Automatic annotation (TrEMBL):
Name of the protein described by the UniProt record: Transcriptional regulator, AraC family
SMART domains, per database record: HTH_ARAC
Keywords: DNA-binding, Transcription, Transcription regulation
Keyword Isomerase attached: no
GO MF, any single term: sequence-specific DNA binding
Keyword DNA-binding: yes
């Protein structure tokens, strides 16, 4: 299977003078030309951080739409499926990608780090104050300077500590959002349902399965989901199946039979008919589309 770095045309991103990197551990760039690579759903296996200092970007993560209006920080976590919608003509900002190993090293250490980093999975967008924007931009400029110090034997370690400091400096805001969220009983059930769908959609597509997990009757769950989202239980499951299928078709070199197997369809033919019914085109046609 291809990695997501090879899926996106990083060559264009890395050619410009505004791009800085340390081997394959960390990439910094300000070129928004990479965004069209996300026109189709892309499943990230590395985290992406976007600082929007002017203008706006519209994107979705796992079917949820976000408008990133400056000044704002937006983080796509590993394993999430991101799709770009639009970018304003006046957009300025920067992007940061880090390898799995780099991220793992960041998370090694004090346990209190984990909530700061993992809150972004549920709350990937945070609005910044003017002072926050200056602070994050300063960290970015410092990272650029250190990355360019190619003769520094401690360059990678210095960069790692700077990234940690940057996330400590602003990451508490993500965690604060999650701490301060007040939810109704129905909102909590809705969130639990969606988390169950995320975890089980590849194998479980029946209302009864999710109702049993939530200790509800299928009828009650169906009404609750419809009333709170204007979508049925089956709509939610199908949306996640199709989103995953699209990401695998565009982000990997798996053949259609392999994708059918991963998604637990009884046959490639059944998967093809299911995909065409919901996506409007066959898996093969979707893979070839631009």
């Amino acid at each position: 299977m291809k990695s997501n770095i090879s899926t996106i045309d990083w060559q264009n991103c890395l050619q410009g003078p505004e791009t800085n990197s340390i081997d394959t551990d960390l990439f910094l760039f300000s070129n928004p030309l990479l965004l069209p690579a996300f026109d189709f759903p892309v499943k990230m296996d590395i985290p992406l951080t976007i600082l929007c200092s002017r203008g706006a970007i519209k994107a979705s993560i796992n079917l949820k739409d976000y408008t990133i209006e400056a000044p704002a920080l937006f983080i796509v976590a590993s394993g999430q499926i991101v799709q770009y919608r639009s970018v304003s003509e006046d957009f300025t900002g920067f992007f940061m990608l880090m390898s799995k190993k780099f991220l793992a090293d960041l998370l090694t250490g004090p346990r209190e780090r984990l909530p700061v980093f993992f809150s972004v999975i549920d709350y990937p967008l945070v609005q910044l104050t003017a002072d926050d924007l200056v602070s994050v931009t300063d960290f970015y400029m410092m990272l650029q300077k250190v990355i360019r110090q190619t003769g520094n034997p401690y360059r990678l370690e210095t960069v790692r500590h700077l990234v940690q400091a940057m996330f400590y400096n602003t990451g508490y805001k993500f965690h604060k959002i999650s701490d301060n969220s007040t939810k109704t009983k129905h909102e909590i059930l809705m969130e639990e349902f969606i988390n169950l769908v995320k975890a089980h959609f590849k194998k479980e597509r029946e209302v009864g399965f999710y109702a049993a997990k939530l200790k509800l009757t299928p009828k009650y769950l169906s009404k609750l989901i419809r009333d709170n989202s204007n979508k049925s239980v089956n709509d939610w499951v199908n949306d996640y199946v199709i989103l995953e299928a699209k990401a695998l078709l565009k982000s990997t070199d798996m053949n259609i039979q392999q994708i059918s197997d991963v998604l637990n369809f009884p046959s490639q033919s059944f998967f093809g008919k299911y995909f065409k019914r919901l996506a409007g085109v066959s898996p093969k046609e979707y893979r070839k589309s631009k």
